[in-house]
Amino acid sequence: MKNIGSLLIGVFVLLVIITSSAYTVDQREYALVFRLGEIVSVKRDPGLYFKMPMVENIRYYDKRILTLNWEEPDRFITSEKKNVLVDSFVKWRIIDPSKYYVSVRGDEVQAERRLSQMVNDGLRAEFGKRTIHDVVSGERSEIMEILRQRADKESRQMGIQILDVRLRRVDLPKEVSESVYQRMEAERKSVANELRSQGAAAAEKIRADADRQREVIIAEAYRDAQKVKGEGDAKASEVYAQAFGKNPEFYAFYRSQEAYKNSFKSKSDVMVIDQSSDFFKYMRSSGKK
Amino acid sequence: MRKFPGFWNKNNEGPPDLDEVFKDLNQKLNRLFGGKGGSGAPRGTSPAPQPLPVAPILGIVALIWLGSGFYIVDQGSRGVVLRFGQHVETTMPGPRWHLPFPIESIENVNLEQVRTIEMGYRSFEGETARSKELRESLMLTDDENIIDLQVAVQYNLKSVEDYQFSNRSTEESVRGVAETAIREIVGKSKMDFVLYEGRDDVAARAKKLMQDMLDRYKSGINVVNVTMQNAQPPEQVQAAFDDAVKAKQDLERQKNEGQAYANDVIPKARGTASRLTEEAAGYKLRVENEAKGNADRFEQVLTQYNKAPEVTRQRLYLDAQEHVLSNTSKVLVDQKGSNSLLYLPLDKLMTISGAPGNAATAPAATTEKPAQEPQADSSTLDRSRDAMRTRDREYR
Is the ipTM beyond the 0.85 threshold? Predict the structure, then answer.
């Protein structure tokens, strides 16, 4: 009984000593060892460590990359005195935990406040030198790099490294957006109008061209047709001349008879005939001489 | 981390062996503590029941403790083993064992699952509807226009260690990175490029930029895909944009209408042209043949005339006169009578006999020009005679 009791007590005491002196440092953490308020060592590597119980205490700081986000986008003024709303984030990391502890009491909220002030200052300066266009497209990467370098330089004193400053959103305030929309609308309208009148012009051109082609085709055909007809007429004249030339006097007589027949063949042709006409020669007398 | 639930059941198959182990352990412990305590004699002789529970309890505790080291890594996941907070091993899928708490701990990380970030919209599980996030989706382009973009980013992990150890709230930073990357690319592109021809290009460049940034942060994340879900002008100007698109269609339509007109007119003109050509050819042949025919006929008559000129001449004259007079209205006047007193109501005569005559000539007038020509040139007697006969019939 006694043995077991002493065994349990021994184990218990051992456990108490171990738990109060052993500590682990995670892969993701730094550990600061304070001895009575004074930093005695910085544990950067993960693993199992021991400390003096009661006298030494430990604080842990994140080794990972942290993100500083703004809750609301901030208003900045560009060189052409226009407002833009900027939302950005900062990637930062504690690289020197003891400096970090000294400068911001190891308080992340305080560290972020200091960082955001630094970055905001930088943003204000850089935006003030540039137009919206530069900020949005032209020099976006440059601005981010300048801001990163500036902030990094200042933050080193806090034991902080700035990996990246990123402009997430660069937007126009609502009032300005409205006028942008109006401009976009007007632009589209002009594009639409242009397209429509282009269409009308193109259609008219095609039509006119078609009309021209029609005229040309018909005119050419007419020209050729007349030529062919002329050839026919010429040939006919030749034939007639040849035939009728054999006895022109008889042709005149013969053709006249034909012409009479053809000219007077309707009852509406009223003939007032004198009896002395040759035709009535026998009407007047028997013709017997 | 999952415990291996079947462990105890499976290993309790041989209880006698375990008992022996406990007994053995028990005795050893007794000896050990007995020696320390200094009162070993009474314990060895009398088999007191007290020492028995200590060893089995310790044994069971030890086994439970060891058993708590079992865990299963799911397919597609990796187990990250930390020994006193230090990363020592990354284990593959399957049942595994680690040194139990507090020495080692396990973090299970899903490596292969493809995760999605939605930008500019949120879709809901099991629903097709999606809600817009205007704050995210509206962005400025290079030409200071605003467009409305919805983008989905798919990613998985390429390094479990980086993912676990390099960044705090990695998931959240993927979103931030995606947003800056897309806005940066869009900010450097013209609106029409983003909206129309350059959508894939924007997505590809955003993907590359994202991957660069994520690699710089050692996030262990692999961007699988950046897809443009929707790229539109903002709602406020949508109507104007639609109208511009319509105008483009109108342009095409108008062109097509013009072309349709051309396609109508030109073939018709070709038709007219070939009509003219054909008609001319026909006219030529007709005129020539008529001439030949007329000439032939005349020559025949001439031959006969030469044989008996007087008689033939007289006959022809009388034939013609007869024909003429038989077909016309006649007024025979005796010249010797009082010529000046003669009154002829010519206009009445014309109206009486004119009406049917007009009707008879009407069809000839309406026929086309080429058809008229034989009539004007009508030396073809047969034809004119036929015409006479039909007219005669009409009068009766």
Answer: no
